[in-house]
Fold:
Amino acid sequence: MTNRRDFIKKVTAGTAGIALGSSSILKASTAGMSAKSYGRIIGSNDKINVAIIGLGRRLGAFYEPVAQKQNNVHLSYLCDVMKSQREKAAANFAKHIDYKPKLENDLRKILDDKQVDAVINATPDHWHAPGSIMALKAGKHVYVEKPCSHNMEESDLLVEAQKKYDRVVQMGNQQRSSDHTIEIIKEIHNGVIGTPYKAVAFYTNQRGEVPLQKKAPVPNGLDWNLFQGPAPRRQYTSETWDYNWHWYGWDYGTAETGNNATHEFDIARWALQVDYPIRADVQAEKRHFVNDGWEMYDTMFATFKFANNTVINWDGKSRNGYDTYGGGRGTIIYGSEGTVFVDRGKYILYDRSGKVVKDSKSAAQEGGTALGGGGDMTTGHVVNWFDTIRGKDTLTSHIAEGVISQAMVHYSNIASRINKGFDIDDKTGRMFDRDAMALWSREYEPGWEPIL
Structure:
């Protein structure tokens, strides 16, 4: 298996060599590049034709980066399997752009359009990796929302697809593009809290009761077959297509860890400078509305141990709003000489006695626990993707880096499903447990398996 850390270094070094604004300088700087790598670069003055696939609650996060004139982007398509979503998205985008994108039901028709340069994949979780791999095979650059994969095998396939088709793939862990987060992570790496040894990542919400699934007619305008896509076929049940797919079993969603922990895991791992853990242990239960339709845990405490004697904890409370840490979501990093609290709006630096050394409130506005989110960080993250496509910047979250953070999501879910912890090979990410490895992949509808 390719060493991802070496791969990331090679990729960023190569991209840095073409991070120039002038097209003439760009040509000179790419003289030594392969025809394949050179061919994927869009000129700094060329318009990027983008399609957005999946028009649910994340749509609002893309109004600004797509509409900003300086980004020189043309929204070619709005795609969703639900007719009302397409129409609503078109109406909302009409407030931000002065032209009409095409509306499409089937992402495959978009991928066949050679004029489309790039795809924003904001579909449900089970579509993230398969849809992104399909887009890469079609020659498109990809921005894939978190979680970037539904399981560990899809993570490997997505990284391999990126390498094979040589396109720019960024995961939607937008805090990687946050100025105040970049600033404090750099300070941590430079020793501002001594030797970091532990991070606590957390998420607190007050999600309510979820309806029980009931067999029902397919809603008007929904392509239920295409919604299921790679997932095994079943009869439609009410409430499934509209967000509650997150909680209705494992065919579509990745529970709250996939839905939200991805972000905080990523910050914790970044701060501690660790890759795969050597051990995962999880306590996870459904604690609230025990007879409702929510089929997964809603409360989790996870512990990940790393070879350098550091630890990451995840404290996820989906339906208990008690404010344990002083915010709905964030990460606390403990060091031998101090502590840092960082979330989407600020960081606070403490010395070893607990005294505040610096309280830096960011000027950025980014959604926290509210559905949809979006804001300055997402805009910056998407623009970073645009600029990297043009060869003017380097990705803040290359997919080969993103999947390592994503692995802790999958380990959390696997441990909860088999009801035991396990040891992990920190070089390959594979688990030393037969029951755990049985969940390395998932069942696919025949003919829909992701293939490179």
Q: What stands out?
A: The chain has 14 helices and 15 strands. Residues 399-418 form the longest helix (20 residues). Residues 285 and 399 are 31 Å apart (CA to CA). The two ends are 16 Å apart (CA to CA).
